[in-house]
Amino acid sequence: MSALVTENRLADPDRSYRALIEAHRGLSDEESAALNSRLVLILANHIGEHAVLQEAIALAKQSIEPVKATSE
Question: Of 7, 23, 28, 63, which is the most buried if we count CB atoms within 10 A?
Fold first, then answer.
């Protein structure tokens, strides 16, 4: 079983970020959400391990919880 890799493995993180932002350019909110959903499913399939996916989901949710708590 693999563990979630959290250290940066992108050769050019800024380029990757720009590619993600550019993919959303010109899309409606609905289209942007659909693109994100498809991208997540494609990458989840690439991961291929439920435990690693669950770990990634938990990590992503942790980053949202503090924001949610301060906005309430």
Answer: 23
Q: Enter the pTM of the model.
A: 0.77
- d(CA 53, CA 26) in angstroms, rounded, equals 30
> Reduced to 3 DSSP states, what percent helix, strand and coil does the chain have, rounded to the nearest 5?
75, 0, 25
- Say how far apart CA 40 and CA 38 lie, in whole Å: 5
Our CA dihedral for 18, 30, 67, 52, rounded to 10 degrees, sits at -70
* Residue 25 per-residue DSSP state: T
- pLDDT at 72 exceeding the cut of 70: no
Nearest to 2 by CA among 39, 40, 56, 62: 56
Dihedral sign for Cα 34, 6, 60, 53, please: positive
Tell me what pLDDT residue 2 has: 82
Whose tokens are 């493995």? That residue is: 9
